[in-house]
Amino acid sequence: MSDTKAVVKSVDMSEEMQQEAIECSTQALEKYNIEKDIAAHIKREFDRKYGPTWHCVVGRNFGSFVTHGKMQFNRRKRAILQVMVVVFFGSVLAKYGYFNMDKQRWLSKLNLVFFTPCLLFSNIASVISFQKLLAFWPIPVFYLTFALLNYTSSQLITRLAGLSPAYRRFVLACVMFSNSNSLPIATISSLAVSEAAHILFWGDDDTPESVAARGISYTLFFAIFGNLIRWSYGYQLLQKHEDDDSIADNRTVNEEEQVETMQSTYHSFDNGSSSSSSSTSGDYLTTARDGMPPRQLSAVTITVADENTTLLPQTNTKSSKKIDTMAVPEPLYKRIAKRINGFMSPPLYAAFFALLVGLSPLKPILYDKQSFLYPSFTKAVEGCGKAAVPLILTCLGAQLVSIQESQHPASPQMKKPVALAIAIRMGLMPFLVVPIVVLFVLYGSQFSTLASDPVFITMMIVLGCTPTAINLVQITQVNNIFEEEMLRMLFWSYGVVCVPICTFVVFLALNVVDRML
């Protein structure tokens, strides 16, 4: 027990009164500390006996015993259900013909070019600062550690499983890039107003509002690094590569027969006519030249040539020679700019611009509520950014309907990478993340005060174990690759696996905090 002694600062009291006041106040403080120590001991014994479901509340509700397990489960389910409801709205729109595949692809590109950059700019520029970079230095360390674990485990397991290079990239993207916004923020917001909030208090004067604010700050700061890597390296992973065409064709005999039958049907459409074309809306399949099973296309145009149709485009030999002789190599700065632009994406440009604003004197101009630009420009960008996630979920629901209507069951080549990605992301990662966070609690207090913050420890565990990021479906739709695989990945992750696994992770994080801090 700490040595406590009252101090009287009033100069209007006599010496006798001051001495008596000091003695009385000191006795009161000692009694308070004794009772507080007894109360803390009672709480520890009760919690150790009955586990995380029931807790003894010490403080204004001293002597009462409450449960928070069921409440947390229900709140977690509400966050998942909110996502599923928006997905359902998208499926209804597609079911009634308002949202075909071409419109989905157009909306995904618009979202990628405009709404998602607005969202990233708002989230990063409003949070980042030099002070937080210095104070929150463990967060990028945790992110890089988790990313390295994800990369290593994904590469080892997918190579042992014999996946093609294309599917190894798909699994790696699903494992490396997790939901770092909606689910973690919903989790800490619900924890802060629940009876479990007292476990997350950092000191006697902490409040539920402060718990929620710190948790959201940690989450958004973690998401900054996730977004930077996701929209650069992740965007490259989910693009078509040149070596994909050289991967061996893994189709089954039935799939080959199905494709041959479709091709013969196309050629029998027009016998003897000069040319004909037929368009489909996602009901036909493409061949699997990239080592992946046949998949849908939003629109396919087939032209049948007759004997009079030339097979190669005619070119003017003289003009082509003239162009070759006049060709001048591009300046170095243009080639560098093209290389950078090929690696970048609109959301990544927005993220770097947000860093420029957040770490420079421009931030008060945009984020000071008294400035001219805050109510006009800044709030307008924030409003546009809020539309990004609903648009992604709506397109996700519409794509699910397209797959259902195609009556194209998932092939074994498609099921295997999806199952591996879910197993690594949701099954393996909790067993790798929790020990790392526990080591930080044990040995990190001498390097950072965040090691003693229960909210920080809880959020690092949650952020390391969340499902695959929903906006990866946006990248696959724009790049026209891995669309079906990503839809099945998100369906199983959020519709089946997420609720039990994430609830277990939250309880595990609360247990770690309760027993170690």
Automatic annotation (TrEMBL):
<feature type="transmembrane region" description="Helical">
    <location>
        <begin position="79"/>
        <end position="98"/>
    </location>
</feature>
<feature type="transmembrane region" description="Helical">
    <location>
        <begin position="490"/>
        <end position="513"/>
    </location>
</feature>
<dbReference type="GO" id="GO:0055085">
    <property type="term" value="P:transmembrane transport"/>
</dbReference>
<feature type="transmembrane region" description="Helical">
    <location>
        <begin position="170"/>
        <end position="191"/>
    </location>
</feature>
<protein>
    <recommendedName>
        <fullName>Dynein light chain 1, cytoplasmic</fullName>
    </recommendedName>
</protein>
<keyword id="KW-0472">Membrane</keyword>
<feature type="transmembrane region" description="Helical">
    <location>
        <begin position="211"/>
        <end position="229"/>
    </location>
</feature>
<dbReference type="GO" id="GO:0051028">
    <property type="term" value="P:mRNA transport"/>
</dbReference>
<dbReference type="Pfam" id="PF03547">
    <property type="entry name" value="Mem_trans"/>
</dbReference>
<keyword id="KW-0243">Dynein</keyword>
<keyword id="KW-0493">Microtubule</keyword>
<dbReference type="InterPro" id="IPR001372">
    <property type="entry name" value="Dynein_light_chain_typ-1/2"/>
</dbReference>
<comment type="similarity">
    <text>Belongs to the dynein light chain family.</text>
</comment>
<dbReference type="InterPro" id="IPR037177">
    <property type="entry name" value="DLC_sf"/>
</dbReference>
<keyword id="KW-0812">Transmembrane</keyword>
<feature type="transmembrane region" description="Helical">
    <location>
        <begin position="348"/>
        <end position="367"/>
    </location>
</feature>
<keyword id="KW-0813">Transport</keyword>
<dbReference type="GO" id="GO:0007017">
    <property type="term" value="P:microtubule-based process"/>
</dbReference>
<feature type="transmembrane region" description="Helical">
    <location>
        <begin position="136"/>
        <end position="158"/>
    </location>
</feature>
<dbReference type="GO" id="GO:0030286">
    <property type="term" value="C:dynein complex"/>
</dbReference>
<feature type="region of interest" description="Disordered">
    <location>
        <begin position="248"/>
        <end position="289"/>
    </location>
</feature>
<dbReference type="GO" id="GO:0005634">
    <property type="term" value="C:nucleus"/>
</dbReference>
<feature type="transmembrane region" description="Helical">
    <location>
        <begin position="110"/>
        <end position="130"/>
    </location>
</feature>
<keyword id="KW-1133">Transmembrane helix</keyword>
<dbReference type="GO" id="GO:0016020">
    <property type="term" value="C:membrane"/>
</dbReference>
<keyword id="KW-0963">Cytoplasm</keyword>
<dbReference type="GO" id="GO:0005874">
    <property type="term" value="C:microtubule"/>
</dbReference>
<dbReference type="InterPro" id="IPR004776">
    <property type="entry name" value="Mem_transp_PIN-like"/>
</dbReference>
<keyword id="KW-0206">Cytoskeleton</keyword>
<dbReference type="Pfam" id="PF01221">
    <property type="entry name" value="Dynein_light"/>
</dbReference>
<feature type="transmembrane region" description="Helical">
    <location>
        <begin position="455"/>
        <end position="478"/>
    </location>
</feature>
<keyword id="KW-0509">mRNA transport</keyword>
<keyword id="KW-0653">Protein transport</keyword>
<feature type="compositionally biased region" description="Polar residues">
    <location>
        <begin position="260"/>
        <end position="272"/>
    </location>
</feature>
<dbReference type="GO" id="GO:0015031">
    <property type="term" value="P:protein transport"/>
</dbReference>
<feature type="transmembrane region" description="Helical">
    <location>
        <begin position="418"/>
        <end position="443"/>
    </location>
</feature>
<dbReference type="GO" id="GO:0005783">
    <property type="term" value="C:endoplasmic reticulum"/>
</dbReference>
<keyword id="KW-0539">Nucleus</keyword>
